[in-house]
Amino acid sequence: MHEMALCEGIVEIVEEEARRRSFSRVKTVCLEIGALSHVAPEAMKFCFAAVAARTIADGAVVEVVELPGVAWCMACSRSVEIAQRDDPCPCCGSYQLQVTAGEEMRVKELEVD
């Protein structure tokens, strides 16, 4: 489960921001997770609770904004939404797609005290 390692990285980001901005507690962590990122939002929430225990983010709520997968279709010259990497273009059926969005996972915002 790579979500555990990702959550460890998120806690490190949160602790670094706490040092830089002098806050004492994190109430909410908002994450953006792309549909093509191979990250399970529910697993992230579960893992974050375990990793954040006894840290500045202990008890923080994790909110997830799911971003769609987007690709450029070389055949019909359109930007299209896709659910998986191997999906065909929903407009023309071509498989000549270049992914342009949906692979990201980032901390979007923090609600802090």
TrEMBL record:
One of its GO terms (molecular function) is metallochaperone activity. Ni(2+) binds at residue 2. InterPro entries: Hydgase_Ni_incorp_HypA/HybF_CS (IPR020538), HypA/HybF (IPR000688). Zn(2+) binds at residues 73, 76, 89, 92. It comes from the Bacteria. Keywords: Metal-binding, Nickel, Zinc. GO terms for biological process: protein maturation. Involved in the maturation of [NiFe] hydrogenases. Required for nickel insertion into the metal center of the hydrogenase. HAMAP family: HypA_HybF. Belongs to the HypA/HybF family. This is Hydrogenase maturation factor HypA. The lineage of its organism: Bacteria, Pseudomonadati, Pseudomonadota, Alphaproteobacteria, Hyphomicrobiales. The gene is hypA.
